[in-house]
Amino acid sequence: MTDRAEPPSDSSDRPNLVLVHCHDLGQHLGCYGADVDTPNIDRIAADGARLANSFCSAPQCSPSRSSMMTGHYPHENGVMGLAHMGWALGDDWETLPKRLRAAGYETALLGFQHEVPDEPERLGYEHVDSGTKRALELVDVVDDFFAERADADDPFFVSVGIEEPHRPFRRGYLPESTYDAYDPEAIPLDDFPYLPDAPGVREDVADLRSVISEVLDPAVGRYRESLADAGLAEETVFVFTTDHGLAIPRAKGTCYDPGIETALLVHQPGVVEGGDVHESLVTNVDFTPTMLDLLGVEPATDASGESFAPLLRGEPHDGRDRLFAEMTWHDRYNPIRAVRTERYKYVRNFSLLPKVFVPMDVAPTASGREVHEEFHVPQRPAEELYDLEADPSESENLASDRKPFEAAAEASDPDSAHVDALDRLRDELEAWMESTDDPLLDGPVPYPDVE
To answer: 13-312, superfamily in CATH?
Structure first.
């Protein structure tokens, strides 16, 4: 094991931070065990650390990203829906770029963000280049940015926001040869046990994997090459992550693991040991506190998130024994709250909608049409409990034999193996909602007033 450096205290000695974040990826990468070719992104995991149990606060874009940038849950910072639909992050919120700028960092955004609908400078960025959010088109933009800062005295933070692999997977600006990488007829679906083996699903998975392997992965590889060519790699924390799960049925828009799991890879030469794989539970509410800790910048004292930088540095770290996720608004009102431990997932549904919510960008697609009857017709239960060890695809609801919110002592024939888990997690979720002033406890959350 290498000797790991201590975080610097002087701003001029602090490392740079490069954050590359893409859209709707989940953990669908080779280094996470998915059947997709991603050698460039996998190399980040080999050079740095991979967080195997990384999750987000919400299974949709703006709420999740707002948590990543503030260290607070969506219902705390007010981003309970999409930024362009009235749920923008308020200007008074402290963000990662604001804190780094105050600490002497140059801050820049290249490409995409979705915490506010316009004027991303409000988030704390000094420089903004949002002319494109396409992964390969950003290669030259990123290259120029690094080249111009090769001899800079002050550290920088740059957020590189990529649209891919957001739907539609088949895009007019990509050559048709892009989609030759995977054959729908031959593609295995082992990564998707919660979906039927149907032509529409195969077609979507083939296109998804083609975009990831032929567009996203090579672009990220080029960004790292540019950083190295500028002589900046050894003094930079390089992070690759995403906002939430894949844009396929029973993933995005749900609090099942495929909806809230996120890739998170961190490379910091001399600090993060290459090839480390951490199994501890982490959530993107912890992201800003962790980055500030790695960079030696004083974190906020009131954040809901907590730093897992000690874990990355190879220091003792107790970590989380549970994490929370939520859904309120997307293209419709869909209030869900959930708590996840290493073994169990408890989901509380506050509106008795169809069994599985399929977002507007997924519903009309080939895979969305394949699952319409199965997911749309049944009514979802008020409570769901899953044993993730025995049932990782979350298909058997262990709360189905209990009346909604019935205590174990009141149940006629409780499942003794899981009876304590349901009562305990129900109480823990309610306690979390109360401690964080979740407005859902007071009734339905109205749509915001939009001028």
So the answer is: Alkaline Phosphatase, subunit A (3.40.720.10)
Amino acid at 2: T
Q: Are 366 and 201 in contact (CB under 8 A)?
A: yes
Give the DSSP H or E segment for 185: none
The SS3 of residue 158 is: strand
Beta strand ranges found along 214-332 (DSSP E): 236-242, 264-267, 276-283, 323-329
CB atoms closer than 10 angstroms to residue 108: 18
Identical fold for domains 13-312 and 323-440, yes or no, is no
Q: Are 57 and 241 in contact (CB under 8 A)?
A: no
Nearest to 184 by CA among 215, 217, 207: 207
Name the strands in the sheet holding 127-129, side by side, starting at the edge strand that comes first in the sequence: 127-129, 106-111, 156-161, 16-22, 236-242, 264-267, 49-55, 276-283
Torsion of CA 380, 73, 307, 274, to 10 degrees: 50
Q: How far apart are CA 100 and CA 160, in angstroms?
A: 16
Distance CA 353, CA 314 (A): 45
Predicted confidence at residue 183, as pLDDT, reads 95
SS (H, E, C) 319-369: CECCEEEEEEECCCEEEEEEEECCCEEEEEECCCCECCCCCCCCCCCHHHH
The two structure tokens encoding residue 47: 């050079």
Alpha helix segments (H runs only) across 363-418: 366-370, 372-376
Interaxial angle between packed helices 61-70 and 287-295, expressed in degrees from 0 to 180 and rounded to the nearest 10: 30
Parallel, antiparallel or unpaired: strands 236-242 and 16-22: parallel
Domain spanning 323-440, CATH architecture: 2-Layer Sandwich (3.30)
Using CA atoms, how far apart are residues 231 and 226, in angstroms rounded to an integer? 9
Quote the CA–CA distance of 188 and 224 in Å, as a whole number. 30
Q: Which pLDDT belongs to residue 2?
A: 43
By C-alpha distance, which of 108, 122, 121, 213 is closest to 157?
Answer: 108
Is residue 248 within 8 Å of 192, Cβ to Cβ?
yes
Per-run averaged pLDDT (10 residues), the chain, 451 residues: 52 90 99 98 99 98 98 98 95 97 98 96 97 96 98 96 95 91 94 94 96 98 99 98 97 98 98 97 98 94 95 95 98 96 97 86 91 81 96 94 67 68 96 98 89 52
- Please give the pLDDT value at position 262: 99
Domain coordinates of the chain in residue numbers? 13-312, 323-440
